Amino acid sequence: MSEKKENVLAGFKAFLMRGNVVDLAVAVVIGAAFTNIVNSVVKGIISPVVGAVGTKSLDGYKSCLKAPCTIGPDGQPTGVEILWGSVLNATLTFVITAAVVYFLMVLPMAKYLARQEARRKAREGVQEIVEITELEVLKEIRDTLVAQRAGGGVGSQAGSRDGL
After folding, report:
1. Three-state DSSP class for 54?
2. Contacting residues for 36 by C-beta, under 8 A, at least 6 apart
3. Residue (of 45, 34, 46, 47) closest to 97 by Cα position
4. What is the CA radius of gyration of the chain?
5. Is residue 147 a contact partner of residue 154, using CB atoms and an 8 Å limit?
6. Which of 39, 120, 159, 164 has the fewest CB atoms nearer than 10 Å to its CB?
7. How confident is the model at residue 128, as a pLDDT?
8. For residues 92 and 115, is the Cβ–Cβ distance under 8 A?
9. Dihedral through CA 138, CA 140, CA 143, CA 147, nearest 10?
10. Which DSSP symbol is given to 75?
11. First-to-last CA distance in the chain?
12. How far apart are CA 37 and CA 27, in angstroms?
């Protein structure tokens, strides 16, 4: 039974030590901190702009499905309210969050990684060109040596040319 417990603990340790678990933990912490920034942008900039057109808070927008939508004498609301302003506020926050993440994090990182990949391919391309050039030179040397052996040598031809 202790072997099974040790295997389970070893498996759990291996799971925790995998890189993607650590990356996920870091992403959650950074995401939580980033949420505060986005919420501040929405509350400090977006909501006042929307408030200039309508109410200061989108949460104030609602419709009454079943009248009358009031607070009863016992403090409980009467009627059925649809709080579409809250849904609009949450949707707007999501869209702003997605836009900020895309334009400030994803897009610059994608451009950076594309430049790095282009540089890597350029370095590999130069190496391939050098390798191909060296290969071609070696083939030419081989062909020259074969021609020398078959035709009596280039040296004798060169000597006869020099004598001319």
Report:
1. coil
2. none
3. 34
4. 37
5. yes
6. 164
7. 66
8. no
9. -130
10. S
11. 97
12. 15
Q: State which amino acid sits at residue 43.
A: K
The pLDDT, as a whole number, for residue 112 is: 93
The structure tokens listed for 98 are 């997605």
In tens, the pLDDT along 112-160 reads: 999 999 988 888 776 666 667 778 888 889 999 999 998 765 554 444 4
User: In this structure, what token pair is assigned to residue 85?
Assistant: 């302003």
Token code pair at residue 9: 């603990």
pTM confidence score? 0.47
89 exposure class (CB count in 10 Å sphere: 0-12, 13-18, 19+): buried
Whether 42 shows a pLDDT value over 90: the answer reads no
Q: Which residue has the tokens 């869209």?
A: 95
Residue type, 131: E
**62-102 confidence digits (pLDDT tens):** 888 877 777 778 877 777 888 888 888 888 878 877 887 78
